[in-house]
Design a protein that fits this description.
Blueprint (H helix, E strand, L loop, with lengths): L17 H22 L2 H6 L1 H17 L9 H19 L1 H11 L1 H6 L5 H29 L8 H29 L2 H17 L12 H8 L2 H13 L9 H22 L6
């Protein structure tokens, strides 16, 4: 038999490079969060009920009322991406409660004294939140199929939707983590979370076009990252749907906002243990 030879590595390959360490630490944090999700998926399934109600009840009523002009596509098709974005927002925005629970149980203290980078801790939680968002996306696709809503099924469009959902879930879960680091108690977090989610939802293009808004609300919507997530999903998901701002602008706004949120969360996360 030929002698054992080590697998040749490219020049400059380092098993302990900073990026590889970061990816390993991020994957470890995400794996722990996903294990918790697999063992207790009730939260994900309970939150899946909400989009069903919005599409089956609210969407059907408004569609028959013909009160909102949505151009070439029907109202149900128009709000389907908005309801997906809403599900992503509502699932991710309360992610901070779990972080506060971890603080109360002493998990945060153990994570902070570990060798893992703070950025990996934050990014790992954002990645795990993204997988929760993918469950919401699967629910919406099933509902849309049952209700005979015209959805694009080509691989490129579906891949773009999944990427947008991952990005949106990571963004809003990191925003939730920032809130948790500031308020530090579950009671305060619940109050602030409810105050923020509904205005963010209604001050977006999720259930009505931007053109129907008064000028002041349209200006607020332009600053709302949920608007760009909905716009991106609407262009990718719906047959005949278009992105008003353009896919490049939508992705740029979401990525830039996410990176800003991560930078803030990395600085605030250690304060959660105080």
């Amino acid at each position: 038999m030929p002698p054992y030879r080590r697998e040749e590595r490219p020049i400059g390959w380092d098993e302990n490079t900073t990026m590889r360490k970061f990816l390993r630490e991020t994957a470890a944090v995400a794996e722990v969060e996903l294990i918790k999700l697999v063992r207790d998926p009730t939260e994900v399934f309970s939150r899946a009920i909400q989009p069903v109600l919005w599409l089956v009840v609210f969407g059907q009523v408004i569609a028959h009322a013909h009160g909102i002009q949505t151009g070439e596509i029907g109202y149900l098709a128009f709000i389907t991406p908005g309801i997906l974005a809403q599900s992503v927002l509502f699932s991710a925005i309360f992610y901070g409660i779990a972080v506060i629970w971890e603080r109360d149980l002493g998990v945060v203290h153990k994570l902070l004294v570990s060798p893992a980078r703070r950025s990996a801790l934050v990014f790992g939680k954002a990645v795990s939140a993204g997988f929760r968002g993918l469950v919401q996306a699967a629910v919406i696709y099933v509902i849309a199929y049952i209700m005979n809503i015209a959805i694009r099924h080509d691989p490129l469009a579906v891949g773009g939707v999944l990427l947008a959902v991952l990005l949106g879930s990571g963004l809003f879960s990191t925003f939730s983590l920032i809130i948790a680091c500031i308020v530090k108690t579950r009671e305060r977090f619940m109050g602030i979370g409810q105050v923020l989610t509904m205005p963010m939802f209604f001050a977006s293009n999720a259930i009505y076009p931007l053109d129907l808004m008064p000028p002041w609300l349209r200006s607020v919507a332009q600053l709302n990252p949920l608007t760009y997530l909905v716009d991106l999903l609407r262009g990718l998901m719906i047959v005949g749907g278009v992105s008003v701002h353009g896919y490049g602008v939508d992705f740029f706004v979401l990525i830039a906002t996410f990176l800003v949120m991560v930078a803030i969360a990395v600085r605030l996360y250690p304060t959660l243990a105080e």
